[in-house]
Amino acid sequence: MFSLLNTLVEKNKKYGREGKVASYIPALSEANPDELGIYVVDSRGKEYYSGDYNAKFTIQSISKIVSLILAIRDNGRENVFKKVDVEPTGMGFNSIVNLEASDSGKPYNPMINAGAIVTTSLIDGKDVNEKLEKILEFMRTVTNNDDISVNERVYLSEKETGNRNRALAYFMKSTGVLDGDVEEILDLYFKQCSIEVTARDLARFGAVLANDGVIPWTNEKFIPKDVCRIVKTIMVTCGMYDASGDFAVKVGIPAKSGVGGGILATVPRKFGIGIYGPSLDEKGNSIAGINIITDLANELDLSIF
Ligand code: GLU
């Protein structure tokens, strides 16, 4: 496996030059587009890696999986899906028009910004700090990494420039979909997006989901199996922005990407996969990341379909 990963990193690095690092959050524009790292954890917890697997980056949209799991844990699945649907949009992750167009007024799914702002608002806690601690604790457990924390520079950069997310949130407040203090909800959302991780952290989290919520290195049952199933299903239909259909056809693995350049993929009962490549394609997915996971899925026959 190590030599396969080395070969695939060398082969796919070049794609970094064909995309662009995100710049709408100014602090993200400092990433090095040539970096590419991959980390794989199998169902017994054995780990394989290559390239820039140790590079740190912010989790961004991959945190939407965490807020969905915690929202379900705190409220039950019926109550969560009263506020957010589970339908793909075919539109950008921060689209405003599709929020107004939705008949129910609910965001289409928890993997777009509007939907994640709703799931974040449903996490219980007395204030932003307590809720953030719950998110960080969850992340530390599924990554086996006590150092998981927020990158303050990215958080402040996003908070300063996140007006589109403000627009989405205030719109949802006006229609009654969002309850509570909008600025506080956004503050927590910006913080959760700015959690710093490596490809290794994402791979371990992916391995927990692949293992139906049982942590491979402790055997603890950490996430209920039915919640893992919901999350993985939504990852297939909505996890790779509006390229999710194409990704399902080409790769066929539940996955979630983020504009920080990360991809978390989870192959049921087999592997968790974490990828970092900050140069993005026009949909917002890591361009080298998509190419390397396509090759890996083909080599190991990983499609779930
Ligand atoms: N924090 C980013 C935003 O809300 C997350 C976007 C993403 O990774 O898709 O714009």
Number of helices: 13
| Low-confidence parts | none
Q: Write down the secondary-structure element order.
A: HEEEEHHHHHHHHEHHHEEEEH
**Percentage of helical residues?**
40-55%
CATH architecture of the largest domain: 3-Layer(aba) Sandwich
Mean pLDDT: 96
> What order do the strands of the largest sheet run in, or round the barrel if closed?
3-2-8-7-6
Shape: globular
* The level-1 CATH class of the largest domain: Alpha Beta
Bound molecules: glutamic acid
Q: How many individual domains?
A: 2
Sketch the major β-sheet. 5 strands, antiparallel
- Proportion of beta-strand residues: 5-15%
The CATH H-level superfamily of the largest domain is DD-peptidase/beta-lactamase superfamily
Terminal CA distance reads 23 Å
Family: Belongs to the glutaminase family.
Catalytic activity: L-glutamine + H2O = L-glutamate + NH4(+)
Subunit structure: Homotetramer.
GO molecular function: glutaminase activity
Describe the 3D structure.
The chain is an alpha+beta fold and 305 residues long. It has two domains: 2-59 and 196-300, Beta-lactamase, CATH 3.40.710; 61-193, DD-peptidase/beta-lactamase superfamily (Beta-lactamase), CATH 3.40.710. The chain is 46% helix and 11% strand. The strands form three sheets. It has a five-stranded antiparallel β-sheet with strand order 3-2-8-7-6. The chain is globular, with a radius of gyration of 18 Å. The chain starts with a helix and ends in a 5-residue tail after the last helix. The structure holds glutamic acid. The site of glutamic acid has 11 residues, from loops. Its EC number is 3.5.1.2.
